[in-house]
UniProtKB/TrEMBL annotation:
<keyword id="KW-0663">Pyridoxal phosphate</keyword>
<dbReference type="GO" id="GO:0005975">
    <property type="term" value="P:carbohydrate metabolic process"/>
</dbReference>
<protein>
    <submittedName>
        <fullName>Alpha-glucan phosphorylase</fullName>
    </submittedName>
</protein>
<dbReference type="Pfam" id="PF00343">
    <property type="entry name" value="Phosphorylase"/>
</dbReference>
<comment type="similarity">
    <text>Belongs to the glycogen phosphorylase family.</text>
</comment>
<dbReference type="Pfam" id="PF11897">
    <property type="entry name" value="DUF3417"/>
</dbReference>
<dbReference type="InterPro" id="IPR000811">
    <property type="entry name" value="Glyco_trans_35"/>
</dbReference>
<dbReference type="InterPro" id="IPR011834">
    <property type="entry name" value="Agluc_phsphrylas"/>
</dbReference>
<feature type="modified residue" description="N6-(pyridoxal phosphate)lysine">
    <location>
        <position position="611"/>
    </location>
</feature>
<dbReference type="GO" id="GO:0030170">
    <property type="term" value="F:pyridoxal phosphate binding"/>
</dbReference>
<dbReference type="InterPro" id="IPR024517">
    <property type="entry name" value="Glycogen_phosphorylase_DUF3417"/>
</dbReference>
<dbReference type="InterPro" id="IPR052182">
    <property type="entry name" value="Glycogen/Maltodextrin_Phosph"/>
</dbReference>
<keyword id="KW-0021">Allosteric enzyme</keyword>
<feature type="domain" description="DUF3417">
    <location>
        <begin position="22"/>
        <end position="125"/>
    </location>
</feature>
<dbReference type="GO" id="GO:0008184">
    <property type="term" value="F:glycogen phosphorylase activity"/>
</dbReference>
Amino acid sequence: MNNETPVSQPLYGLLHTDVGGIDALAELALDMRSSWNHATDQVWRQLDPSLWDLTRNPWVVLQTVSREKLRDALADAAFRRNVDALVQARRAAAEAPAWFQQAHPQAPLNSVAYFSMEFMLSEALPIYSGGLGNVAGDQLKAAGDLGVPVIGVGLLYQQGYFRQLIDPDGAQQALYPYNDPGQLPVTPLRRPDGEWLRLKLDLPGHPIWLRAWQVRVGRVRLYLLDSNDAANYPPYRGITSELYGGGPDQRLMQELILGIGGWRLLAALGIEPQVCHLNEGHAALAVLERARHFMQATGQPFEAALAVTRAGNLFTTHTAVAAGFDRFAPAQVEHHLGGYARTQLGISLHELLALGRRHPDDAAEPFNMAYLAIRGSGAVNGVSRLHGEVSRRLFAPLFPRWPVDEVPVGHVTNGVHMPTWDSAAADDLWTRACGKDRWLGPTEALEQDIQSVSDADLWRFRTAASTALIDYARARAARQLAAAGAPQEEVEGAGHSCDCHTLTLGFARRFATYKRPNLLLHDPERLLRLLTNPQRPVQLIMAGKAHPADQAGQALIQQWIHFTRRPEARARVIFLSDYDMHVAGHLVQGVDVWLNTPRRPWEASGTSGMKVLVNGGLNLSELDGWWAEAYTPEVGWALGDGREHDDDPARDALEAEALYDLLEREVIPAFYSRDAQGIPTAWVARMRESMARLAPRFSSNRAVREYTERYYLPAASAYRARSADQGKIGADLVDWRHALDQEWAALRFGEVRVETDDERHVFEAQVYLDELDPDAVRVELYANGVSGTAPECVEMIRSRQLVGAANGYAYRAEVPAARPAADYTARLLPHRDGVAIPLEAAHVLWQR
Ligand SMILES: *Cc1c(COP(=O)(O)O)cnc(C)c1O
C-alpha cells in the first residue's frame, strides 16, 4: 500500500498554484531533516528571512510567502537549480544503503515501531516537553541516519506542552497557543484513493474517531494520531489537546489512543512490525492490541497470543522513582478498558488488572503501566548504567526472592543526535577532522581523528561560540523584558549584560525539585562574589520551565528571577523564558560549562549535558545519570560522592559548598590561566578529551546501534520463532507456565551434600519435583559475587533418579575450592529454551 501523501494535493489547498517547482519546495519543507541538515536553510531565508529566523519552520515560510515572490524565486535559474539539487540530495540520502543494510544484510528485521508520548524533532513541531521527547526524537533521527527501519508512533497535540511567560513579579504564566496542523510540517495520512485515514476506537458511550498524520524525518516516518475530529463527541475531541495536561482520565485516554490506536494504525497501513519499542510505560497498551491482532490472525486465546508477541516487545523505562510510574485507579481502568478486555481480548477485568499489579488480588492496588509493560515485553532496559541498577531495585517487587542483580532490566545509555545539536562552526570543525559522514556509521575512529585539532583552532572555535551565544541571549532577554513592560533602562541593560570574554556557565532544565535548580543559590552572597569578581568574573545563562501544577518548581523559578534582578547580578545573569529546543540549541552551542545538579539517583540519564560535548562545552555535574559513567577528571568536573542521600537538606548544603569550591578552585582558574597566545591550555586539553572520548559514546548513533544489535535483532528473531505454527509455541509456553504455577509450591530440596578435595567442591543436591516435568526446570549452584564481581551461577546436572522417589533426582556440579563451600546455595528455576527467566516466569526455590 502506498501511504505517500501526494504533495501536489496539500492540506487546505494552500499551495494551489501553477508555479512550477512548488512540489520540490514542499518536499523539502516537509522533511524534518532540515532540523539537522542545514543545506536548505538558505532557501527559506531567501524567501522570507525574518519569518525564517523567528519560526525555523520551512513549511510556515512556504505557506506564508506571496505567490509573486515564489514565482520570482523559482523563475531564477540559480535558485531553481539549487532547489532541484537539494531534492536530489534528499532522495539520494533516503535511498543510499546505510550502516544497517551493510552491517546486517540478512537481518530478519524489517520494521520496529517506536511508540512515544512525545517526540522532540524541531521547534516547528511542538509535541514535546523535555528529556523523554528528546530521546525519542534523537533516536528517530539516528535510526534514519543508520538505516534502521524504525517507524515512530505518537500523538499530535493541539496545544502540546505549555509555553512559558515570566510576569513582572517573576512568576511563571502558562500559555497554550494553538498548534494549527496546517502550519505544522505534518500531512494527513491518506489511503491510496486519497481518503484521509481515520480510525475508530470504542470508548464508553461513544466511539472515537482518530485522525492520522505523517511526518517525514529523513528516511524515517513518524505517524501521529489526534482526536480533534468533527465527528467526535465534544469531550473526546480535546483528549489530545495537551501533553501532560488534564487529569488522570485524560491521560488514560491519551495512552489508550497511543497504544491501542497506534497499533491499529500500523495495521491499517498493512505494517506488521516485528519489534515494538515502548519508550516509557505510557505506550504499554500497545502490547494488548498487538496480542489482539495475533489472536485474530491465529485464533489463539489472549494468554498464548501475549506469550508469542511479547517476545517482540522492548520496554525502555525512564523513571528513577516509583512515584514516577503512571498508575490508574481500578475503576478508571474498568470504565475505559473493561469492555475492551472482555469483548476484544476475551479476558476478565480481573485478568487485565492483574497485568498491571504486583498483587493481582489486591482490589485496591492501582494499575501500573510500567508493570503492564514488563509483563508484555521480552526485554526491559533503563537509560544509563546507574539507572539500570536503580530500575532493578524499583522492579524487584515483581521478582520476589530473586537477587536484585538478576532482576531482568539491562541498560542502554541514552545519546543525543549530534548533527541536531552541533553549531555550524562545530559541524565545520568536525567535518575537517572526521569527514562529512562521521555520524552515519560506526564512530569508533572519531576519537582519534578529532584529537588532531590544534589548541589554537579549538580555542578560536570556542570564543566565537561564546560571542554568538551572548549576542543571542542579550537580544532575547531585552525583547523578553520589553514585552513584559520592564522599564526602559532595564531593557537596555539586558542588551549589554554579560560579555564574550567571561566564563559562561549554562544551566537549563525542567525546574523540578529533584533537579535542585537552586543549589547554586544556596548562598546568594557567595554566588554574587563569584559572578562579580573583577579579575575572574563568571556569568550565568539560564532557562527552564516548571510544570503548571508544580508549585514548588515555580517557586524556584521565581527565586532565580528575583536574584537576576538584584542590581549586582543584572550584568552577569540572564534568565531566558520559554525554554525550548531553539533556546537549548543556542545554549549548548555557546556555554563554556554546563551545570547539572540533580539529586542522585533521580536523573535517569539526562541528555542536555551530552549536547555540549560536540560543541566543546564541558560538564560540571552531579555523579548521576549518564555522567556517573562518563566522568573522568580529564573530561570535566564531578559533584557529589557517587552515593545516594535522599533529600537531606544538610547534604544539599554540603554539595552547594562543594560546588562553589569547585568553581573557585578549579573551574575558574583553569579558564583564566592563559599562555602567551592567550589560550587556556589546560582548559583546551579538557575540551579536546571531552569531545574525543565522550561525543561518540554519548551520541544517539551509538545508542541506536546498541538497541539494534542487543535488542531489536534478537527480538525480531525471537518473535519470528515464537509466532511460527500459528502460535503453537505460545500455547505450549502457557501450558508450561501453568504447570509451574500449579506445582511450584510442592517442589522441594532434600539433602545437599558436598565433598571437597584440594581443588574442588563436588555438590550433590536432592530435588523432588512432584508432578513437574524435570525438563521444565533447571538446578543451579549460586554464590554471591565478591567485592563487586558478578554472582556465580553454575548449572547442576541431573545425574540419577533417587531411589524410592517417583520424581526425585540427584543433581551434581563441581566448582573450584577457592571459595568456601558454604558460599554456595542450590536453587531451582524454571527453564525452557528461548524463554527469558525470570522475566517470563519468576518462580525460584532456594535450598535455604
Ligand atoms: C535536552 C533538552 C531537555 C532535556 O534536558 P535534561 O537536562 O537532560 O533533562 C529538556 N528540554 C529541552 C528543551 C531540551 O533541549
